[in-house]
Amino acid sequence: MKTKAYAAMSAGSPLVPFTFDRRDVGDHDVALKISYSGICHSDIHQVAEEWGPSIFPMVPGHEIAGIVSSVGSKVTNFKIGDAIGVGVFIDSCRVCDNCTTGLQQYCVKGMIGTYNGLESDGETVAMGGYSDLFVINEDYALHIPANLDLKGVAPLLCAGITLYSPIKRWNVSPGMHVAVMGLGGLGHMGVKFAVAMGAHVTVLSHSPGKEADAFAMGAHSFVATNNPDNFKSIQKSFDLILNTISAEVAIDDYLKLLKLDGTLVVVGIPGEPYKINVRNLLSGRRSIAGSMIGGLPEIQEMLDFCGKHNILSEVEVVSADYINEAYVRTVASDVKYRFVIDASTI
Ligand code: NAP
Ligand code: ZN
Ligand code: ZN
What we know:
Elements: E1 2-8, E2 15-21, E3 29-38, H1 41-47, E4 64-71, E5 83-86, E6 89-91, H2 97-100, E7 112-113, E8 133-137, E9 142-143, H3 150-153, H4 159-169, E10 177-181, H5 185-196, E11 200-205, H6 211-216, E12 221-224, E13 238-243, H7 251-255, E14 258-266, H8 279-282, E15 287-290, H9 296-309, E16 316-318, H10 323-331, E17 339-342
Helix pairs in contact: 4-5
């Protein structure tokens, strides 16, 4: 199927219009007309090869919301006209312990990513969501609740689930003090979900200009981290800290903000390893942990939760020819709070 897209042709090069063929719809596949595709900082890291070698040409994009345009003969779960979402993976081995318990993102053999890898046939380079149409096995696609606006839904497929999952895993609930590091695409979803779970939520941001927005999203407190003095009054205050920062930060400064038995969960993926002074873990029996997106049942649970509570990402909708500028602005933390490509402009 002829597909129009935007692609990076080599590491760090600007994205340009690109066409390629997607597979025809197989028996168990659905095709979707993409409505909106979010720009995740992971797209930027991979185009720039900050995580190691990438495959080019690369069509990034793993926050995809659209409408089903055709279904294979054996498809049972979707019909033409359904609102449908695709996230960070399009398949996995399906038989390992993690896949069979719905944790496909931790597939022992490795999940099959939506782009910058090979599809399950082991040959076709997977091409992502900065495109006008998509084809996916129905088992790896998600249902989008009918009451939700697709532009605000697209970022839920990565940014949303990446915060929802640790918020559930660490039982965020009323009375808990939760801090979110970085108010970007992931961070702002963390604020919304932690607030929805009833926690007391503090935003730790190096952009003081985001304070009013943080409160509008429901945060109870805002601390500007560009002034080191501001850390003094919040030592030993949080049960859980969710680190969404895309760049290297002095993680020890943040570990000291945890209460006894508190946990700092890292979801941001800077290219360089963190240095940690283990004394900050010992004193206070603190933990540092990681979390990666979420599995299919949990993504569906999150989308349904958003439908019920009317939770959406705050988005700035852009046309495809703005992608390169959106990358520059995202890297500069000038994002409010997710760029979303209007796929009709591709
Ligand atoms: P984003 O929209 O660019 O947000 C990152 C935020 O981090 C910025 O808005 C900024 O917030 C803060 N920040 C950036 N540079 C900083 C610096 N030098 N010092 C201090 N703070 C800084 O990015 P995103 O799309 O949310 O992604 C965040 C990270 O998570 C990326 O590394 C991405 O690859 C990763 N990620 C991980 C998963 C997973 O499964 N674990 C999933 C998706 C993405 P303030 O302006 O508020 O300070
Ligand atoms: Zn992502
Ligand atoms: Zn598996």
